[in-house]
Design a protein that fits this description.
Layout lengths: L2 E13 L8 H13 L11 E2 L10 E13 L3 E5 L6 H8 L7 E6 L3 E4 L12 H11 L4 H15 L14 H14 L4 E4 L8 H17 L3 E5 L3 H7 L2 E6 L2 E7 H11 L8 E2 L4 E8 L3 E3 L4 E9 L3 E11 L5 E6 L7 E4 L4 E8 L7 E11 L2 E15 L21 E3 L1
Parallel strand pairs: 2-3, 4-8, 4-9, 6-7, 7-8, 13-20
Antiparallel strand pairs: 1-3, 1-5, 9-10, 11-20, 12-14, 14-18, 15-16, 15-17, 15-19, 18-21, 19-20
């Protein structure tokens, strides 16, 4: 099978604080060193590692460093890693939005890119006009674009607004149309960044299905960046894990995702939101592999940075498709933390009884707050699996927003 994409010793360096990586004095110094003194480029020797959690010790940073891999035609590859790991930079290099500092990139065929909402769209032009514009950029003839136009419009669900300027589209409508253009104008390589998160659940399902058809049915290559590990597992066969601008793991998708999830050990590694007047400091799960009917036991360490009243805690449990299937709250069980002083620390224990969810993998977020404010929310930090127990037969309880209590639970 032919090689579709090849990265050979690719690195990308940026200068912190400046739009450009170069100045006149640096250019002169570089030219003198290379051409007169015959030495190696001095700016390729300096630069700190791309670790966003540490203070920079250099004004230069390597967004990517020594990237080597090959992707065969028809492969579907998931690029994963924490925020700032270099995923989007890698895709921008492949899409020729920017060039590498060192190394070479070879790609066979047209590349259709969807790197951010509205990529390549002109806001003053209508949706229809932008379809033709993007098609021309991809090297398509007007006749080819016209042949695909109805399919693109139908898939995007924007038919009513197709002759409206794109600047009046919502972000969801824009990404719908952008993905439809990128997928239906038949690029040999489809590059999709996290933008699908903007769309609703119905569109995300359609987009995943379309990418599967593009790769499996049409033999095209797909590079997919996402923080949704369920979508990554569902779509991709191979995974590449980036850490601080370097490839940490490359292999079968399940192994790479399991390694990535297992490497996340501290609360600070997760996405979170809130004013942090009360903050989740740590959490523990008694057992991650459950059988149907077991209890899920969670401990959460919290700390107050100010004096607060009435702290509530809850867990939102989602399935592999990101669908909310259960909600457990101390408020439902008449357990409250009435007061915390600044600096107070507390460990909250929750036993969720008789987990009767369908066999599969689940994630849960931790929420702290009260009816008026959110103190802290750590997204998708708790992971556990449920397997079938032939001795425990019970009706699977779907999530019902009208239900006051989904599971019985104990708090202390």
């Amino acid at each position: 099978m032919a090689t579709a994409i090849e990265f050979n010793n690719v690195s990308k360096q940026y200068r912190l604080g400046l739009v450009s990586t170069k100045t006149l004095s640096h250019d002169i110094q570089r030219w003198w060193t290379i051409n007169i003194l015959g030495k190696e480029d001095p700016y390729l020797k300096i630069g700190s590692e791309n670790d966003r959690s540490t203070k920079a010790d250099s004004e230069y940073v390597w967004a990517l460093k020594d990237i080597d891999f090959k992707i065969e035609q028809g492969d579907v590859v998931g690029i994963i890693g924490r925020n700032g790991a270099g995923k989007s930079t890698l895709l921008k290099l492949l899409s020729k939005v920017t060039g590498p500092t060192t190394g070479t990139i070879r790609a066979r065929g047209r590349i259709g890119s969807l790197l951010e909402v509205g990529t390549g769209f002109h806001p003053e032009m209508t949706g229809r006009e932008n379809i033709y514009l993007n098609g021309a950029i991809l090297g398509m003839s007007k006749a080819e674009i016209t042949r695909k136009l109805d399919e693109i419009v139908d898939f995007s669900g924007c038919e009513r607004y197709i002759d409206t300027p794109v600047k009046r589209y919502s972000s969801g409508m824009t990404v719908r149309l952008g993905f439809a253009v990128a997928a239906f104008l038949e690029p040999e390589i489809l590059v999709v960044d996290e933008v699908l998160a903007v769309g609703d659940a119905e569109f995300q399902k359609k987009a995943i299905g379309k990418m599967q058809n593009v790769s499996q049915g049409e033999g095209r290559t797909v590079l997919f960046v996402s923080h949704n590990m369920t979508s990554i597992r569902q779509l991709c066969q191979r995974g590449i894990l980036l850490k601080n601008g370097r490839i940490e793991r490359d292999g079968e998708i399940s192994d790479v995702v399991d390694y990535y999830l297992g490497s996340i050990k501290t609360v600070g590694d997760y996405n979170r939101m809130g004013n942090e007047m009360v903050r989740v400091q740590d959490f523990r799960v008694e057992k991650e592999s459950l059988t149907l009917g077991d209890d899920l036991v969670i401990e959460v360490d919290i700390e107050a940075s100010r004096n607060v009243e009435n702290v509530d805690i809850s867990f939102d449990i989602t399935d592999e498709l990101g669908k909310l299937v259960a909600h457990v709250s101390n408020f439902d069980d008449n357990y409250t933390i009435k007061h915390l002083n600044q600096g107070d620390k507390k460990t909250i224990h929750c036993r969720i009884k008789n987990i009767n969810l369908a066999p599969g993998c689940y994630l849960s977020s931790i929420w702290l707050g009260n009816p008026y404010v959110m103190y802290d929310m750590v997204l998708g930090c708790i992971k556990f699996s449920v397997s079938q127990n032939t001795h425990f037969i019970k009706r699977i309880t779907p999530y019902d927003k009208s239900a006051k209590v989904v599971f019985q639970s104990e708090w202390f």
